[in-house]
Amino acid sequence: MILSMERHASYPMLFSMIALSVMFFNCEGPEGPAGTDGTDGTDGIAGVDANETCKVCHNDGGMLTGIQAQYAVSGHATGGTANYGNQEGECSECHTSQGFVYYQANGVSSPTHFASVSQPDCRACHMIHTEYDSTDWAFRVTDPVVSFRDATQTFADFGTANLCVACHQTRSSALPALDATADVSVDTKRFGPHHAPQGNFMDNSAGQQFTGVAYTPSVHTVVADGCVTCHMADGGHYPYGGHTFSMTASFHGPQFNDTACDVVGCHAGADVKALITATKADIAPLLTELKAALGDYLDTSGYLAERTIVGTDTTYTSPTEDDPIDFDPVVLGTVYNYRMIAFEDPGYAVHNPKLARALLQNSIDALP
Ligand code: HEC
Ligand code: HEC
Ligand code: HEC
Ligand code: HEC
Ligand code: HEC
Question: For the chain, how many structural domains are there in total?
């Protein structure tokens, strides 16, 4: 290939080179004055053998492949929302690795979508291939997180779990002020906190906190390193914990990682799974009562709507962008609380059951 190109190119090139040298020879004038001496250069820095730094991670040990294998079965890898979340403006900062990196670097959502995206991966959470040494395991987020929805709110310091809270927090609908009395126009039936209010639960700040029963936080909210301590506890021989980020696994039946509950010491030897079931059963009647109380404002799927009953016919009208509906601010706050606990944080009974109870009770009492 190269040879044949040279063969084709050689004759014209040779001619022009001869022509050029003849030109320079003919144009040469008298010698100019000598230039001043240059300054001494600095000594070069000894190069790092790239191969050696790569080996910090890319080596014949099983650490990297082992963690990749755990990550591969995690909800982060398998959830499949990266492409759906690859949108202009909001979504990509939590649903894609690229969008998260952009948001953390620029403090705003990427204004354009990305040509291609991946799920929240190693690069989202760690500074992979920045320095090409072990410092690349550093976390992309280390400081307490400023709320995505409300720039005036900063979450509590959860140590290594600040990283988790950067994405696992409420967004979408803004709650009306607690003392608001005027109706609020809403243009979506999805009024609520979005799917991941775990950070707000752990921060004891979730939901519309009507007055009534005190909002005393569960002791789980002060577990050191929060989410990480429970969800990444060493999984032993079941595919949970570590980089699966999961408390549960399905292997020879449903399995539950109670290691974290024991490590912290409070539930050593206890049947924690039964404790969770009992806590949920204890909270369930409050959920049922609130749902019934909100009958005029929740459609059959649990979305915000307005119910009209004519004779034996029941119609639900959902707010849309074209046809917004005005709602009482107390109704909106209670719908938000109901949806958050009924649908959006499957772990509420562990993350902060006391908050869930108080929110439900106070919502029931706040409704006219
Ligand atoms: C801090 C640990 C670390 C160091 C140091 C490191 N890598 Fe990586 N490398 C990773 C991780 C983690 C991945 C991504 C694996 C994944 O996504 O599953 C990766 C992926 C790769 C890939 C696959 C393509 C890609 O970019 O995802 C190549 C190629 C690669 N590294 C080359 C190198 C080279 C060459 C060096 C040294 C100059 C190096 N790495 C240093 C951790 C490291
Ligand atoms: C870059 C944003 C981001 C960060 C950081 C993040 N998550 Fe997630 N997480 C997500 C998204 C998005 C999903 C859902 C993925 C999907 O469905 O495609 C998810 C899913 C999960 C799930 C699975 C939920 C289920 O229903 O199966 C768990 C558990 C979880 N995350 C825990 C954590 C923990 C613990 C941390 C901190 C170590 C963390 N996450 C950090 C965005 C993030
Ligand atoms: C502040 C971070 C954040 C933003 C912004 C965000 N999400 Fe999410 N979203 C999450 C997290 C975290 C989860 C996973 C929650 C879980 O599994 O418990 C999630 C879950 C979801 C799910 C459910 C996935 C499933 O497997 O059930 C959908 C769908 C979704 N988001 C769509 C969107 C869309 C569309 C947008 C933009 C309009 C968006 N999200 C913006 C954090 C965010
Ligand atoms: C959702 C965020 C998240 C993702 C995605 C993630 N990690 Fe991690 N990683 C963490 C957290 C948090 C810790 C600390 C765990 C602890 O303290 O027990 C950690 C710890 C580690 C450590 C130990 C670091 C040290 O300094 O000893 C390694 C190695 C590691 N992760 C590699 C990976 C690799 C490889 C991937 C991709 C396959 C990955 N991580 C994906 C959050 C994440
Ligand atoms: C005290 C331990 C503990 C802490 C701290 C904790 N979780 Fe959980 N989390 C659990 C348990 C246990 C479940 C399962 C609850 C159940 O089965 O009802 C769960 C459920 C979840 C779920 C639902 C999906 C699933 O796997 O069932 C997500 C997502 C989640 N947690 C994320 C987080 C995030 C993000 C944080 C930090 C903001 C956090 N958790 C803090 C123990 C904890």
Answer: 2
